[in-house]
Amino acid sequence: MSLLSVNNLNIRFRTGDGYVHAVNDVSFDIAKGQKLAVVGESGSGKSQIAMSIMGLLANNAEAEGEVLYEGQNLLTLPSAKLNRIRAKDIGIIFQDPMSSLNPYMRIERQLGEVVEQHEGLSRSDARKRVLEVMEAVQIPDARNRLTAYPHEFSGGMRQRIVIAMALICKPKLILADEPTTALDVTVQAQIMSLLDEIQRELGTAVMLITHDLGVVAGFCEDTLVLYGGRVMEAAPTLDLFDAPGHPYTRGLLRAVPNISDASASLAAIPGSPPNQTRAPVACPFAPRCVDAIPGCHQTLPELTGDRQQRACIRPVEELT
Ligand SMILES: Nc1ncnc2c1ncn2[C@@H]1O[C@H](COP(=O)(O)OP(=O)(O)OP(=O)(O)O)[C@@H](O)[C@H]1O
Ligand SMILES: [Mg+2]
């Protein structure tokens, strides 16, 4: 059984101007210990997928489908049960460390409180665990920094603390939403190799949301490409980089001069993002697609294929 199984997930937001269809019929699985990258340009629905897994969707959201964690649907689980899973089994790392840390709380309390509450550890056992996890994320001189406040750390160190917080309950799944975007390139690389090391050691599954194809190539065995809230392509990362099967993926990779360049970004495909006021009835990428034929504007392509799945009505051989 998959650790996480997302089935036909649809998320729409009620707004003053009608609905925004942010996530449309998205399905994917994450196995124990698997690392899945979710890529796509801004607004493609990456963060909202993570939010639905954490039960953190905004009040104006309506979600349909299933988000099964070890067989339990997180979308309909009573909040007491959801809270337990959320605290113990799933860790989250957001882009901006300050949004996860309380600026008025010392680091030891901030981290320790979680394990005291959810695992019933005593104050002194909690402190031991905090120290362990601070050492695991390589905070220098951790023992003497237990009483520091978040602002006393550099940006990179703060992000290490956020990772420590996500890890402290030894979760089975980590959702990392652009964990390094706010950091400079050298620190980004350090944080990613730290995550990699920890992941190998603990066998934690990771869903890594990123704009950065360079990071994906080095870290995740599988990649899901989103556009307009729909999955365009889902494949083992190496296959996808070797022979991208969807025009959107091809465009993304072409837009990146060198995939090992850590600052590679996805913004370079001409055209504007799709209109999401209606659920898509045709390929959302068609208006920007160099390979589009009339049929692309009329039908909604299914995601098909075996190892490498793609949602495109045109045969790969015919793509430019
Ligand atoms: N509360 C909300 N009300 C209305 N629309 C929303 C709300 N939250 C998100 N959206 C819309 O949902 C869509 C998907 O947003 P999401 O945050 O998942 O994008 P993303 O892929 O994470 O983008 P980025 O790379 O910029 O973080 C966007 O069009 C966004 O404007
Ligand atoms: Mg986002």
Automatic annotation (TrEMBL):
<dbReference type="InterPro" id="IPR050388">
    <property type="entry name" value="ABC_Ni/Peptide_Import"/>
</dbReference>
<keyword id="KW-0067">ATP-binding</keyword>
<dbReference type="InterPro" id="IPR003439">
    <property type="entry name" value="ABC_transporter-like_ATP-bd"/>
</dbReference>
<dbReference type="InterPro" id="IPR027417">
    <property type="entry name" value="P-loop_NTPase"/>
</dbReference>
<dbReference type="Pfam" id="PF08352">
    <property type="entry name" value="oligo_HPY"/>
</dbReference>
<dbReference type="InterPro" id="IPR013563">
    <property type="entry name" value="Oligopep_ABC_C"/>
</dbReference>
<keyword id="KW-0472">Membrane</keyword>
<keyword id="KW-1003">Cell membrane</keyword>
<dbReference type="Pfam" id="PF00005">
    <property type="entry name" value="ABC_tran"/>
</dbReference>
<dbReference type="InterPro" id="IPR003593">
    <property type="entry name" value="AAA+_ATPase"/>
</dbReference>
<feature type="domain" description="ABC transporter">
    <location>
        <begin position="6"/>
        <end position="253"/>
    </location>
</feature>
<dbReference type="InterPro" id="IPR017871">
    <property type="entry name" value="ABC_transporter-like_CS"/>
</dbReference>
<protein>
    <submittedName>
        <fullName>ATP-binding cassette domain-containing protein</fullName>
    </submittedName>
</protein>
<keyword id="KW-0547">Nucleotide-binding</keyword>
<dbReference type="GO" id="GO:0005524">
    <property type="term" value="F:ATP binding"/>
</dbReference>
<keyword id="KW-0813">Transport</keyword>
<comment type="similarity">
    <text>Belongs to the ABC transporter superfamily.</text>
</comment>
